[in-house]
Amino acid sequence: MPAASQPSAVSHHYDDGRDGTHCLDCIVADIRREYLSPAQNHPWILGFSGGKDSTLVLHAVINAMLGIDPERRTREVHIVSNDTLVESPLVMAYLRSVQERLREALGYLRLPVSVTTTRPDPAQTFWVLLIGRGYPSPNQNMRWCTDRLKIQPTSCYILDHVSQHGAAILVLGVRKDESQSRRASIERHRNLNDSNLTPHTSLPGALIYRPIMDLTTDDVWEILAEHAPPWGGTHADLIQLYRDAEGGECPVVLSKDEAPGCGTNSSRFGCWTCTVVEKDRSLQGFVDAGRHQYQPLVDFRNWLREIRNDPQHRSVERRNGRIEFKDGKHVPGPFTIQARRMILDRLLEVQHEFGDILISQEEIDMIHSVWTQELTR
Ligand code: SF4
Hints:
Layout: H1 20-35, E1 44-47, H2 52-66, E2 77-82, H3 89-109, E3 113-118, H4 126-132, H5 145-165, E4 168-171, H6 180-188, E5 197-199, E6 206-209, H7 217-226, H8 236-245, H9 282-288, H10 295-307, E7 324-326, E8 329-331, H11 337-354, H12 361-375
Parallel strand pairs: 1-2, 1-4, 2-3, 4-6
Antiparallel strand pairs: 5-6, 7-8
This protein binds iron/sulfur cluster.
Iron/sulfur cluster (SF4) binds next to helix 5.
């Protein structure tokens, strides 16, 4: 478990003598100023993945809004989470519980804040594409999932708001300390006219505000450990979740270059079905922490990865009907209909054993209709 990714009990002090307690106050003050900025009053869209960084941003934004007179709280804030429909079930349960608490608290705090979950298009979910259309389990060379499961649902939500309001500001929990590539990406993009906002590179009309970009991982954990969230309770469940999952997270993803952790070993809060990684570390972490009900999911994922390259499960032709070769080697087509049936049967067995929904009835119906279309073509 990398030390930099874990909740830390070590107290952090800044060069100027401030400690973590003051740091939250500083962030809240910055956010309050930004919220009240007269130059722009576009809605804020806060990407909330349930991970530590976006939790801290959410915590600070709600605190900042509570410190503003009600009549000046005119900017809408949308808290947006994405559910790929194959999220790690434990992480999803945690995210839903925070969303429920938030909704309840927002009711009596009377803040102009909404809580939303985006999802992939029903015809583009992981199971509909893999079992319905036979897309081979994703790998590094054919990562068909990130765009459809993560980027498109959130991007559509943002672009909707851009077209309604002329622009929208994405409030993100990204930090330079996350990785070298994150630091380079943050430092590469220039702020707009002396503001704290950077234009998004692939979403026209979207601007990015990063209120915690200079914090270290230890700073984040320290603040979360020391301050109860304004929606009630503590951050203890989040800290425990990271301990059990052994670290990393999958932030809200808005473009491919912002998804360095998606489908890599550094991301342990991604989809439970992720076959891009060699070994799933989050579910295995939960099993190792005593949550044995996740073992069938770990076994299923490993099996899905294994059968990917077995020629008996792949069509000879590609989906376009052609037989293709690359560098003299045959390029297999999608999973055969028999293999897709086998995957669905096994998934339903795992679902039965696990005792909770892993594939929805809507997805099963969609899969059957795709099969019918293919067989009657
Ligand atoms: S976590 Fe894995 S399966 Fe999920 S979108 Fe990322 S690469 Fe694809």
